[in-house]
Amino acid sequence: MSKQEKTFSGLGVSPGIGIGVAHVRESGVIAVPEYCIPAKYLDEERVRLKDAVNRSRRQIGRLKAKAKTMPGAAGEELGYLLDAYYHMFKNSRLVRGAEQRITDERINAEMAVQAEVAEIAKSFSAMDDAYIAARLEDIREVANRLVRNLTKTPVKAFSQAPKGSIAIAEEITPADAAQLDPGRIEGIATLLGGPESHTAILARSLGLPAVMGASGMIQVIETGDRVVIDGDGGKVIVNPTPSTLAIFERRQAERLLEERRLARLRKQPAVTRDGTRIGLQANFELPIQMDMIAQSGSGGIGLLRSEFMYMNRDDAPGEEEQYRALKDIVERMDGKPVTVRTLDAGGDKAAAAVTGVYAESASSALGIRGIRLSLARTEIFEAQLAAITRAGAHGNVRILLPMVSSISEVRKAREIFSRVVKRLRRKRMPIADPLPPIGIMIEVPSAALSADALAQISDFFAIGSNDLTMYTLAIDRGDEQVAHLFDSLHPAVLRLIQFSAEAGLRARIPVSICGEMAGDPRYTALLLGLGFRELSMTATSIPRVKQRIRSMDLVAADYRARVIMDQSDAGRIATLLDDFNALA
Ligand code: PEP
Ligand code: MG
In the predicted model, what is the mean pLDDT of residues 439-443? Predict the structure, then answer.
């Protein structure tokens, strides 16, 4: 008997239709490394276990909140089970026993967890009771989650998935997403994650349709099931009937046609109807995007997120390795500007190799992340600055500092940069000449509000509307539960954007915007009206934004932006903007 069609609703975070065969990422056992811990590092190892326990509890907490949104008995049942797991992470024999083993046996935390589970299993099996056997399964589940969080090894993200797969998982981290092969994966569906998360950004930049926050699907979808991902409507359809499949196949074909039509704009300039030229640049996340960027008709790379060089590895990349990677990119851009953002590790972009002792702090949105981490780990920062400056000898490079929140950070970064340049000159290394300009991301409210002062010591501004929205509205961009509240049209966010842009323009430094707003044609008129003449976005968004620019009168957009900036209600702002767009 064929399986029944079922639809799960979530958030469409990356547009398009993906049709394929489900590959559900097992949340089960992974290979555990085994090693001895020298006595002086035992404390650190116990802290590592504690961090993994806290992280596991946070994950279970999020899953519990999610289960509450599921209708009927299934959600309730799952809620009870997750409650039990949550408590097991608190003070169970498993956690206590593992901690004791680290101390007594001087073994690594993963091994300690495994050894404790084996011991518990032994004592349970002596009882020969079905209820106890089921509890053992729960303990194993908890232990596996703990080990996954300890090793932080990306569970080789869907590397076994055959061509034509739909990746299904509880959560896909940006490090996992960086390993997805768009040649084999047709779409993504997860239970956790929001539209502004870095995983969603990666899905969009790889052109993979994606739905996040789809409750209930994990329990139902099995590897091998046929699945449709509707990234526009936020739907995951499992075992579609032939008629449903035909509808989505048609939509997929229509989309392809539309993309081909838009591709013809590639060689056309991004000029408004009244003659103002707008610079459109591409955001870069992974080398695999290079062809797409080269074909997008972009005027350069406006944001190179350098985290790809630091993810999924145990050691930090050295200067030479980074130099070679960047040189390749700079050469391929053939003289067009490449804005390399220094490491923005932290938040959901964990990079174990560099966060080191700051791992716990870096995982917080308010912790040691971005420029703070670079200033705390100057040896890593220096290697990166040297690599960028050397790559600048092969083209046109700019340096961009992320998560700046105060002037002193920029001063310190500049001092370190001067030291690096001196060293490179002493060694007679070929470097960028003139030296790369140093700009800053404006993505923290304190930076936006000090933009006039920051403009005096920055060579350019790049506005990061994703984080600026998150920090201004106190909304976690990766949490699907609050995704509906994430609104870059909130007057508070717009005022900060306007204030920063005007401060930069007054100081006559280049100002661009590179958050997700820049790639959404809905916002183009407003951004141009606020004074932006440089937008940087996912390469796949360039044709649509260009089309919007070419259909627009800048004088009218300016006037509409002024009307919008007089409003104090986000709903009214949205209506004024959408009405203006509808006239196009
Ligand atoms: C932003 O915050 O808007 C931004 C462009 O940086 P990221 O998305 O990488 O945090
Ligand atoms: Mg940011």
Answer: 98
